[in-house]
């Protein structure tokens, strides 16, 4: 579904992605681990062209996302993106955040959009907050709304960029619970995270990035329990 | 000989009518120029944010002209200069349809737009880039992200400076008397020259200007309270 082919990216003189190659299959949950600065966020941001790359290709369903024939806005509707800082729209209610895309892009009527949004809110257990402004929600609730907002567009794949890193510890679990259910429902997911436990339990595949490369990848059991790479070993010992 | 202050003398018969018409014209001119200014101001803001440098310079030039040339000069240019550039048919039509009101509205509106786009730009700059990213990630294009996500927030942030611009615009409508628009100041001068009751005439005008200014401020702070962004 998503294929990275020798992806390279520089920020000035600094190379953040140094030839990443890998594939995310339909229905698969891939977790990206790595210390900060290893390039994992940049990699998933390249999928929807939030970051431009300078070498290699990112393919979505076989087509280069930077290709001439690609309608990037259409592609972004098919790829849900969840940010570390939630990025809810503060001038809209929880419901308004979700219906905006449905009404303006999916051209749904108000009532249909509302129904759709409510069912997504139900899925993240926040139906009772539909009319609240984002400022009145806790961090965990905001992130769940952000997930519902992305899901409402009915994406083929969901990308998560450190979805729990900005949360207080006691709110991490409510977000992870939603993501776990999503994975069980068969959603294709790419998750940048520091939650080793989540990776072990939910991921089909773990990629460990270091200095812009995938240095180790495989099933969580082999990668996390039997790390071959020194960098991964020290990363895991620090994470525990 | 003592001066007898007698407001009633200017508030009767045709003088009262003149004041009422003058006030109505001032309000109509303010509203029309405000709408034009907001529209052009928003368009200029969207244009200058496009990643194409020459457009940015073009808008910068627009802003500098309107901020640095006296408004009266701008109004005179529109009234005496621009119609000559128009095709004859349009010129005839404009001249027979209160051209002075129309051209004053254009001059005032365009000048306001220059200030409004500056305010809006600073408002947009204060909105985190991540908001734009989130909008684009849902699948909105530049214009949609701006109109549904960025501008609604920017407008709320800049309500206080926009109130100031509105007050300035309202007071500047008095300059339109120079091209014969029958607004409040023009009518006041008329009442004055008919009655020689200078103080009374201008006292009435002053009170009317103050009343409208206060109304604009009240309306503005009401809007500000209702729409204020709750970020945290």
Main beta sheet of chain B: strand number and arrangement? none
Unreliable stretches of chain B (pLDDT < 50, length at least 5) are none
User: How many H/I helical runs of chain B?
Assistant: 10
Q: Percent range for helical residues of chain A?
A: 25-40%
Q: From N to C, what is the helix and strand string of chain A?
A: EEEHEEHEHHHEHEHEEHH
Q: How many E strands of chain A?
A: 10
Approximate helicity band of chain B? over 70%
What is the second-level CATH architecture of chain A?
A: 3-Layer(aba) Sandwich
**Most extensive interface, chain pair and sizes:** A-B, 24 and 21 residues
Number of strands of chain B: 0
Question: So what's the overall shape of chain B?
Answer: globular
Second rung of CATH, namely the architecture of chain B: Orthogonal Bundle
Query: Looking at this structure, what is the CATH superfamily of chain A?
Result: P-loop containing nucleotide triphosphate hydrolases
Low-confidence stretches of chain A: none
Q: Under the CATH scheme, which class of chain B?
A: Mainly Alpha
Distance between the termini of chain B: 67 Å
Instruction: Provide the CATH topology of chain B.
Output: MetI-like fold
The CATH C-level class name of chain A: Alpha Beta
Secondary-structure map:
The complex is a heterodimer of chains A (240) and B (232).
Chain A: E1 2-11, E2 14-24, E3 29-33, H1 40-47, E4 55-60, E5 63-64, H2 72-78, E6 79-82, H3 94-104, H4 110-123, H5 139-152, E7 157-161, H6 169-184, E8 188-192, H7 196-202, E9 205-210, E10 213-218, H8 220-225, H9 230-239
Parallel strand pairs in A: 3-8, 3-9, 6-7, 7-8
Antiparallel strand pairs in A: 1-2, 1-4, 4-5, 9-10
Helix pairs in contact in A: 3-4, 3-5, 4-5, 5-6
Chain B: H1 13-48, H2 53-68, H3 71-85, H4 88-95, H5 99-125, H6 129-138, H7 142-157, H8 159-172, H9 184-195, H10 198-227
Structural overview:
The complex is a heterodimer of chains A (240) and B (232). Chain A has 240 residues and is α/β, with parallel strands linked by helices. Chain A has nine helices and ten strands. The longest helix of chain A has 16 residues, at 169-184. Chain A is globular and about 55 Å long. Chain B is mostly helical and 232 residues long. The longest helix of chain B is centred in the N-terminal third of the chain and has 36 residues, at 13-48. Chains A and B meet through helix 2 and helix 3 of A and helix 6 and helix 7 of B. Chain A: This is Amino acid ABC transporter ATP-binding protein. Chain A: One of its GO terms (molecular function) is ATP binding. Chain A: It holds the Pfam family ABC_tran.
């Amino acid at each position: 579904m998503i294929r990275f082919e020798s992806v390279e990216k520089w920020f000035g003189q600094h190379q953040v992605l140094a030839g990443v190659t890998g594939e995310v299959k339909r229905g698969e949950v891939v977790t990206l681990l790595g210390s900060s600065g290893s390039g994992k966020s940049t990699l998933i941001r390249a999928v929807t062209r939030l970051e431009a790359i300078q070498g290699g290709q990112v393919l979505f369903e076989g087509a280069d996302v930077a290709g001439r024939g690609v309608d990037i806005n259409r592609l972004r509707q098919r790829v849900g993106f969840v940010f570390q800082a939630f990025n809810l729209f503060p001038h809209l209610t929880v419901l308004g955040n979700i219906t905006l895309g449905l009404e303006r892009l999916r051209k749904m009527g108000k009532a249909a959009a509302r129904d759709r949004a409510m069912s997504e809110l139900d899925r993240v257990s926040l139906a009772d907050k539909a009319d609240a402004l984002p400022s009145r929600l806790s961090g965990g609730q905001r992130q769940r709304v952000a997930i519902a907002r992305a899901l409402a567009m009915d994406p083929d794949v969901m990308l998560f960029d450190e979805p729990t890193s900005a949360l207080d510890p006691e709110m991490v679990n409510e977000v992870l619970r939603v993501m776990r259910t999503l994975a069980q429902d068969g959603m294709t997911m790419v998750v940048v995270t520091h939650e080793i436990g989540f990776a072990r339990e939910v991921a089909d595949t773990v990629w460990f990035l270091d200095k812009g490369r995938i240095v180790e990848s495989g099933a969580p059991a082999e990668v996390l329990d039997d790390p071959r790479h020194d960098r991964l070993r020290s990363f895991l010992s620090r994470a525990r | 000989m003592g001066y007898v202050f007698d407001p009633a003398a200017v508030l009767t018969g045709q003088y009262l009518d003149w004041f009422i018409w003058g006030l109505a014209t001032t309000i109509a001119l303010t509203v029309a120029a405000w709408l034009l200014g907001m529209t052009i101001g928003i368009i200029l803001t969207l244009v200058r944010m496009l990643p194409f440098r020459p457009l940015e310079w073009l808008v910068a030039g627009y802003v500098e002209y309107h901020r640095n040339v006296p408004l009266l000069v701008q109004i005179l240019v529109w009234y005496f200069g621009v119609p000559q550039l128009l095709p004859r048919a349009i010129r005839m039509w404009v001249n027979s349809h209160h051209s002075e009101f129309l051209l004053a509205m254009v001059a005032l509106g365009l000048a306001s737009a220059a200030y409004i786009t500056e305010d809006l730009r600073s408002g947009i700059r204060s909105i985190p880039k991540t908001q734009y990213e989130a909008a684009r990630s849902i699948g909105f294009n530049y214009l949609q992200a701006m109109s549904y996500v960025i501008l609604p927030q920017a407008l709320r942030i800049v309500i206080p400076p926009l109130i100031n611009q509105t007050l300035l615009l309202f007071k500047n409508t008095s300059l339109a008397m120079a091209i014969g628009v029958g607004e409040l100041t023009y009518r006041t001068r008329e009442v004055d020259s008919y009655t020689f009751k200078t103080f009374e005439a201008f006292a009435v005008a002053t009170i009317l200007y103050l009343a409208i200014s206060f109304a604009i401020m009240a309306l503005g702070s009401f809007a500000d309270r209702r729409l204020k962004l709750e970020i945290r």
